[in-house]
Design brief:
Length: about 500
């Protein structure tokens, strides 16, 4: 049995002290101020505002992993010091994840290679196989493709529930009335409701515990995509009452300051108990001969065949332990203040439309803000923010095409694109938006830099338009007509490797 009993973290420091601790952590992320060349001939530090895609690595956890690596060995070896130390540390990483998400003993934490995408694909397969008589999944129209396509692939039918509109007509949370109706309608056939805890497009937060309680009323499960929310909000798998407990939660390490770490499935153990593991091989068997093999009943080992990604798992464990001690309530308060500041500043810019509800009283949001400028395409805005101001943001559809099209008014209420989706979806003008998103390291001065840059773009759109051309590859991206900054000029893997080898060459005698 891999689970161990982690020592509980020390009693939390007072809230104000923990907010101060965030100040001390802010500068401790790798790559925060990397200098890049700009189109005006200068060089300056980047402003990283793309944390919803991946956030930056926390150096505190990196130092912990470096210490652990002194003992590095395979967890499938047993008796030498290094192997025993690593095995124990790996158990602690699992247990830290379970504690971080407030999961009860009935749940296991399984490290699985490819982030939330891997986790949700695996869970869709497992749940379809476990309860084949329940062949319907419900999801929402605000999902990332990772929380939509796996259900389409493994379930007979997927129902997409629409979103609530706030009094201004902007999209908010999932429409709970429509969700309740869909759950009742599919009753016995409903396997699970899969919902995102927070949207990667509007940042809007869903009431996952209320949704779990509704799903449980008809014997269905609740699967939560916590990819976006994990680094921004406290999460409690257990919930306030037993019927509110989440059955499955998936998260990605690279979205919680631990790039290179695996994704995690936190799920009820009984969902795997009668299920032949998806992946078999070393580390999960009790007996093997040429005719049969017996898989261990222990979780999470049963679902983690092969040698684990130990450095990544330990990095995630150390990161979550530190975040847990700082307290996700303090992290949330810090980010809420910055998000409010950014929303007000962006809203004041003429010609800028922010998507999704702005009304926090009906639609809470994390630090994810998407917008468009009226005069300039999203691909041009994003390229110019990078080229002239060193500001890193994301554009296009954020792997949520149905939702983005709907917000842009080019899909119907059911998320279906028009069959003649040619003009609005042409290769020259692929629809999309610009997204600013925050991590613990961002400050008001980052927001000010973005706002000033956008002000410049809106004040002279033609000046920018003359300097850019569309790539024309269907992405909706644009590139500068003259400024080039080839990636290899700043970092080249082979060159960096060769330089290391040359610097460490033996000195000839
Ligand atoms: N769900 C949401 C809401 C996301 O934002 C993302 C990543 N953009 C994913 C799922 C997929 O995560 P990953 O790429 O780590 O598998």
């Amino acid at each position: 049995m891999l689970h161990t009993q982690n020592a509980a973290p020390p009693a939390p420091a007072p809230f104000a002290a923990r907010r101060q601790q965030i100040e001390a952590l802010r500068g401790q992320f790798t790559g925060l101020n990397t200098p890049y060349p700009r189109a005006d001939g200068t060089t300056g530090p980047r402003v990283y505002l793309d944390s919803a895609a991946s956030n930056l690595r926390f150096q505190g956890a990196e130092a912990v992993v470096d210490e652990a690596m002194q003992h590095y060995a395979n967890t499938h070896s047993h008796l030498h010091h290094g192997a025993r130390i690593m095995t124990e540390a790996y158990k602690q990483a699992h247990e830290t994840v379970r504690q971080f998400v407030g999961a009860p003993e009935t749940h296991t934490a399984i490290f699985c290679g490819t982030g939330v995408t891997g986790g949700l694909n695996r869970m869709a397969r497992v749940l379809a196989a476990q309860r084949p008589e329940r062949d319907v999944a419900i999801t929402t129209l605000m999902e990332h493709h990772a929380n939509d396509l796996p259900h389409r692939k493994h379930m007979r039918e997927v129902v997409h529930v629409p979103l609530e509109m706030d009094p201004d007509g902007n999209a908010g949370r999932v429409d709970m009335h429509a969700l309740r109706t869909a759950i009742k309608e599919h009753g016995d056939r409903l396997n699970y409701v899969a919902v995102t805890a927070a949207s990667n497009v509007t940042g809007v937060v869903n009431p996952v515990h209320e949704i779990a309680a509704l799903a449980h009323e008809v014997g269905a499960l609740c699967v939560v995509d916590a990819a976006q929310s994990a680094a921004h909000l406290p999460i409690s798998v257990a919930g306030a009452a037993p019927n509110e407990a989440l059955d499955v939660v998936c998260l990605s390490g690279h979205k919680i300051y631990a790039p290179g770490s695996p994704g995690v499935i936190i799920a009820r153990k009984d969902l795997f108990e009668r299920h032949e593991p998806e992946v078999v091989g070393g580390g999960i068997v009790e007996f093997v001969d040429a005719k049969r093999y017996d898989v261990t009943p222990s979780l999470p080992e049963r679902e983690e065949a092969g040698t684990p990604n130990l450095p990544g798992s330990l990095l995630l464990g150390a990161t979550l332990r530190i975040l847990q001690r700082v307290g996700m309530d303090a992290v949330e308060a810090d980010e809420q203040a910055l998000t409010q500041y950014a929303m007000s500043a962006l809203n004041a810019l003429p010609g800028l439309t922010i998507y999704g509800s702005h009304r926090l009283e009906v639609a809470e949001r994390i630090g994810v803000i998407t917008f468009n400028l009226h005069d300039l395409p999203h691909g041009l805005v994003t390229a110019a923010l990078n080229d002239y101001f060193g500001i890193a943001v994301r554009n296009e559809c954020f792997c949520a095409q149905p939702f983005v099209r709907q917000l842009l008014g080019i899909a119907d209420a059911k998320g279906i694109a028009p069959s003649d989706c040619t003009d609005a979806c042409s290769t020259r003008a692929q629809p999309g938006m610009v997204r600013i998103s925050f991590g613990l390291y961002n400050t008001e001065s980052d927001v000010d830099a973005a706002v000033e840059a956008l002000q410049d773009l809106t004040s002279r759109p033609d000046w920018y338009r003359e300097r850019y051309r569309p790539v024309g590859d269907g992405s909706g991206d644009w590139v500068h007509t003259e400024f080039e900054a080839p990636p290899a000029a700043q970092f080249d893997l082979l060159d960096a490797s060769d330089r290391w080898l040359d610097a460490n060459a033996p000195t000839s005698s």
